[in-house]
Design brief:
Blueprint: H1 2-16, H2 27-38, H3 45-54, H4 57-65, H5 69-73
C-alpha cells in the first residue's frame, strides 16, 4: 500500500513539472491564454507580459497547458 501511494505521488509531481518549453517569442500567445483562463481576475496585459518574459520556458509551457485558475496558479 505504501509503495502504491509513493508511486502515485511521484508520478503526480513529475507530471506537474514536465511541459513543452515555450520561448519568450511566444509570450503574446501565453498572455492571451492566461487572460482567457483568468477572466476578470487577470492582471493588465503589460503586467502579464513582464511576468511572461521573466518566466522560464517550462513555466510558460505550464501556463499554456493550464485550463483552470488553480492549475495556472501552480505554474509560477
Amino acid at each position: 500500500m505504501r509503495f502504491t501511494l509513493l508511486a502515485v505521488t511521484v508520478l503526480t509531481l513529475s507530471a506537474c513539472s514536465d511541459y513543452d518549453p515555450i520561448p519568450v517569442s511566444q509570450c503574446n500567445k501565453v498572455v492571451s491564454h492566461a487572460q482567457k483562463v483568468l477572466g476578470a481576475l487577470a492582471p493588465s496585459s503589460s503586467e502579464l507580459m513582464s511576468q511572461c518574459k521573466a518566466a522560464s520556458d517550462s513555466e510558460r509551457g505550464c501556463v499554456l497547458a493550464s485550463s483552470k485558475k488553480g492549475q495556472l496558479a501552480q505554474c509560477l
